[in-house]
Amino acid sequence: MSEPLYISEIFSSIQGEGMLAGRRQIFVRLMECNLDCRYCDTDFIKADMCRLETQPGSGTFYNLPLPLSLNKISAIFAEWLLRLPAAHHSVSFTGGEPLLSADSLAEWFPEIRKILPIHLETNGTLPIALQKVKPSVDYISMDMKLPSTAGCSAPLWDLHALFLRECYGKNVSVKVVVGEGSTDSEIIQVCEVIAAVDAKLPLFLQPLSLSDGGVGISAARIFHLQELASSRLPDVRVIPQMHKLLGAL
């Protein structure tokens, strides 16, 4: 019997970031995170209720008591796919940091993958946990945390390098949130970590989103960072958070 999970919310929306941007997904947001990025807009406090959309894409919610079982989640997905049989591309497990629940997800993913492909959104700091779920993951969207934007207490380059090596062989991309203060040396470091594994992996530069709806980087600066990265990697793209531009979840 698989372990139940503490899930913050389940909803249907457009993926606004990275390689699957523009795809409709079912999002499963897990509670708790091992980092405390200063730009993060999500509350990761462990609670006793999960917010579930009343119907996919409605933007209205009701509460379910936690933790949730695999059977309950599977039933929700099956119902949503009956309502919208061809709308969803995949299920995105996000957070928080989903890999904090790797032991449970290692049991969940093979069953959920029978319904839809699995997309894992991760901060790229738990390589041993990734080993547990990797066989059942279809897409990995890995964040690299820049000191200039995330404000982590210590640089995470070594952990990110270990994690990306563990991702090798999967459909993986790297995303970095960049702001006006993001430095050339940070972008060069990102490129070096990627190139040491596979220079062909796509890198997404995501402009920092501000609470007022704007972005925390000028067009000139993002162009410069894209030029710098593109001189070292063949596939560098700039994508703002599309779901925020749409006013979606």
Which second-level CATH architecture applies? Alpha-Beta Barrel
Helix count? 8
Could you give the order of the helices and strands?
A: EEEEHEHEHEHHEHEHEH
Low-confidence stretches: none
N- and C-termini, Cα separation: 32 Å
Please bin the fraction of helical residues.
25-40%
Name the CATH class: Alpha Beta
CATH topology: TIM Barrel
How many β strands by DSSP?
10
Which structural class best describes the helix and strand composition?
alpha/beta
Shape: globular
Radius of gyration: 18 Å
Q: Mean pLDDT score, rounded?
A: 93
Q: Could you give a short account of the major beta sheet? A: 10 strands, mixed
What's the layout of helices and strands?
Layout: E1 7-14, E2 24-30, E3 49-53, E4 61-65, H1 70-83, E5 90-94, H2 102-112, E6 118-122, H3 127-133, E7 139-143, H4 147-150, H5 157-167, E8 171-178, H6 184-198, E9 203-207, H7 219-230, E10 236-238, H8 242-246
Parallel strand pairs: 1-3, 2-5, 5-6, 6-7, 7-8, 8-9, 9-10
Antiparallel strand pairs: 1-2, 3-4
Helix pairs in contact: 2-3, 3-5, 5-6
